[in-house]
Write a structure and sequence with these properties.
With 123 residues, the protein is mainly α. It has one domain (17-121): Rossmann fold. Helix content is 56%, strand content 5%. The protein is built from five helices and three strands. It has a three-stranded mixed β-sheet. It starts with 19 loop residues before the first helix and ends with a helix.
């Protein structure tokens, strides 16, 4: 119990071995692109996932600021065309990304700490 709560001093992400090559290809393509369009799932986890890949690519601040967000929730042609004509700045979705990150970290903290606490209490 003296080691609880477990709270990381620094949160680190590490690519899975089986997806590392894909991430390397994505980072290269992101750096080569003149314009980025974030077309991830239109929910908070989709926002966070693509934002983390963009962050991992270590692009210039100017390119990051010009990144657009494409929100597609319906795949019929007219809906996709409408979405393409209504893109917004990806910066508008920072709160959505932060919300997903907060939930992810809270899930980790609760899971890690409660599992440890209940395991010790149940011995």
């Amino acid at each position: 119990f003296e080691h609880l709560p477990i709270i990381p001093e620094q949160w680190k992400l590490k690519a899975k071995t089986k997806t590392r090559k894909q991430l390397t290809v994505l980072k290269k393509l992101i750096k080569q692109a003149s314009q980025l369009i974030h077309a991830g799932d239109p929910d908070r986890e989709g926002q966070l996932l693509v934002d983390q890949v963009i962050e991992e690519a270590k692009i210039s601040q100017a390119k990051k600021q010009s990144t657009q967000r494409l929100l597609i929730s319906d795949l019929n042609l007219s809906a996709v065309k409408k979405s393409l004509s209504n893109m917004r700045s990806n910066r508008d979705f920072i709160p959505l990304s932060v919300s997903a990150l907060a939930r992810s970290r809270a899930d980790w903290l609760f899971g890690m700490n409660l599992t440890r606490a209940y395991t010790l209490a149940g011995q």
